[in-house]
Amino acid sequence: MGGRARIAWVCAALLILAGCGGDDTQTAATPTPTPTATETATPTPTAEAAIEADAVAKMPEVPVGAVGTLPPPASAKVHDPGLLHTAFESAETMWEREFGAAGSRYQHAKLVFFHSTVRTKCGEQSRETGPFYCPADFGIYLNTTFFDGLARKYALQSGFAAGYITAHEVAHHVQELLGVHQRVAAANASDPAGANARSIQVELQADCYAGVWLHTVSARGELTEADVQDIVTAATVVGDDYQRNSAGAELAPETWTHGSSADRVRWVLTGLQQGLPSACNTFAS
Q: Coiled-coil intervals in this record (predicted)?
């Protein structure tokens, strides 16, 4: 599929979001879960400089449909563990190549499926926990029950909706390897008031990195307009404002830690359209 068609899908996806009503990373002791629009707060220039990972600037544009980055099977359902594993392996392959191109070594994450209580080096997590990344053991934990519920509740048909969420968790691993989490923790120690804003920027960067992975498969003819619509829906429903609206709670933007639906969609589509890790510097936006 040509670049012009992909851009058209991005524009269509933004229109879809306008009609919508309206994961994550754990610290060394806590995992990171994955669960209308307002502006995202930005850190000070000093914090931006401290957080930005230099290695990202050395990474080349991800080639569309690159060998070794096969997409999930077109026939796979959102909750298919085989699809989740395929997306995980595909994203890992892409990042290994990107790290190599930047002169760095990529350390692989591990994938764990769960549907009941799971023990990790970030602590024990219940069956209610959504997908999360634990930096203490490089583990990406995917709750299959979460994906089942996501597909049923929002009538998602595309396997790429689950692929996006899986790639988002892989992106948290990439951030760990690049030192983003450590730099954010240091910035939070000196400026606790900005912690929530930085948490949002970490999540939005992971969304953008997930979009970069989607870019690798977008030209293979596997990513359809319907797939993009489901990806947009998945990104929308994990937005802080959508979650709070659904729970009947006040928006309270100062409490958000993952970003608004609009911002989450915007950043995943940025990665999808540009295919460039350096385009994902949410700390400077």
A: none
